[in-house]
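U., I forgot to send this yesterday:
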Amino acid sequence: MRKTSSHIIFWIAYAFYFFLSGFITIPQKFAQSHNMIQNVVISVSEIIICFYLLIHRILPFTLPTKRYRILFFLLITLATLSSLGNAFFVYLYSHFITNNTFSFYKSCTVGLNNVYLSIHFALAYWFATNFVQNVREQSKAELQKSILEKSILEAELSSLKNQINPHFFYNSLNFLYAQALPVSRRLSDSVMLLSEMMRYTIKENDAEGKVPLEQEVKYIQNYFAIQQMQFGENLQLQIDIIGNINYRRIHPLTLSPFIENALKNGDLSSAEQPIKVLIETQENDLFLTIIYLRKKGIKESEVYDDLIEIRRKLYIVYFNNHVVKFEHSENIHKIFLKLSL
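Result:
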């Protein structure tokens, strides 16, 4: 809308300049040879038509692919048609409206001059817009590079903070499981679930850094099971899986941050509105849908701040191969994720 308004303002200003410059330069000849309004309307209209033909059709078709011969031919054709068109309209206007003397040569000359001006305008506009677009794309690429470098730095710092071998924790959990088994079945089951989750997080990935999708889903189910042990019947959640999750691979811990966000900000005890999680696969795409009731005391901005951070980290791994959408109605929040596996 802003771009259209700018174009309209420019052409109105140019028409006024065209009228004023012609009147000041040769006032008598300008007024006698042609009607001033006729001259402005026909010439400016011709320039506008040629300008948009050039920037939307001719230049995009020829310049990016360096088809200079075709460009030259099209410009000659445009100049010829424009000259003849200008002569035709001037003839009609002079013959039927003003009864002024018609000059074919002069009308064609004016038409050629209009094409000449439109070519200058179009080339200037073409190179200016391409320059601005290149600058924007370069700025966007530099921003993405900066975000990636920052994320790498954060990962390195996190690695420094966690220099203790994670296998130590995994082995310790197995030891605690063996110790807890005679004491409490509930406690030992909890430790076993934690052990399985730890094993998943330290497991080596394939060459692409991916793991089987069923292991990611199993990790989420274990996470839910631990939460269920902690909250008992007060925890209201529902998880459904549609489609085949076997023989598909995903980057580890891709889905779990969305689940954790829902349990962190959602009302866990609402029987009328339980936390609903749907994992669905269709061909090479994975869909995750989460619906939950926002917990009292949690601000909407807090929810979206967390989700934006999750989406930022997801972009580093999947780039443009994913879509994330957030929706809310009153206190009901919906999260939609689409991944190309």
